[in-house]
Amino acid sequence: MAIQPLGNRIVAERIEAEEQYSGGIIIPDSAKEKGQTAKVVATGPGARRDDGSLVPLDVKAGETVMIGKFAGTEINVDGADYVILTEDDILGVIED
């Protein structure tokens, strides 16, 4: 199933941070922090101005972005976890 966001919304998949074990302590999944990087999966067409003209988004599918820990709405589609956010929730684009 493909997800097509509407307006200025973006579908992204969180990139989990690498686990580091210090002194043999294993942190359970429930206590781990959410990753703050995500890969953009799909974008909407953009926001609409009052006159009806379209303002395109600055991010594109395939880019890696920085997002807030609690930004967006988490969804699960076909066993995969995604987060739907607005362009305002994106803090920056990570360039390779």
Q: How would you describe what is shown here?
A:
It contains no helices and eight strands. It has a six-stranded antiparallel sheet with strand order 6-7-1-2-5-8, with no helix packed on it. A hairpin with a 5-residue loop joins strand 3 (47-48) and strand 4. The chain has strands at 9-15, 37-43, 47-48, 54-55, 64-67, 73-77, 80-86, 90-94. It has 96 residues and is mainly β. The model has no long low-confidence stretch (mean pLDDT 85).
Record the strand order, biggest sheet. Answer: 6-7-1-2-5-8
How many β strands by DSSP? Answer: 8
Which percent range fits the helix content?
Answer: under 10%
What is the approximate shape?
A: elongated
End-to-end Cα distance, whole Å, is: 29 Å
Order of helices and strands, N to C?
EEEEEEEE
Q: pLDDT below 50 for ≥5 consecutive residues: which ranges? A: none
Percent of sequence in beta strands: 35-45%
Question: By helix and strand content, what is the structural category?
Answer: mainly beta
Biggest sheet overview: 6 strands, antiparallel
| C-alpha-based Rg, rounded | 16 Å
The pLDDT mean sits at: 85
Describe, in short, the structure shown:
The protein has strands spanning 9-15, 37-43, 47-48, 54-55, 64-67, 73-77, 80-86, 90-94. With 96 residues, the chain is mostly beta strands. The relative contact order is 0.30.
Please outline the helices and strands.
Elements: E1 9-15, E2 37-43, E3 47-48, E4 54-55, E5 64-67, E6 73-77, E7 80-86, E8 90-94
Antiparallel strand pairs: 1-2, 1-7, 2-5, 3-4, 5-8, 6-7
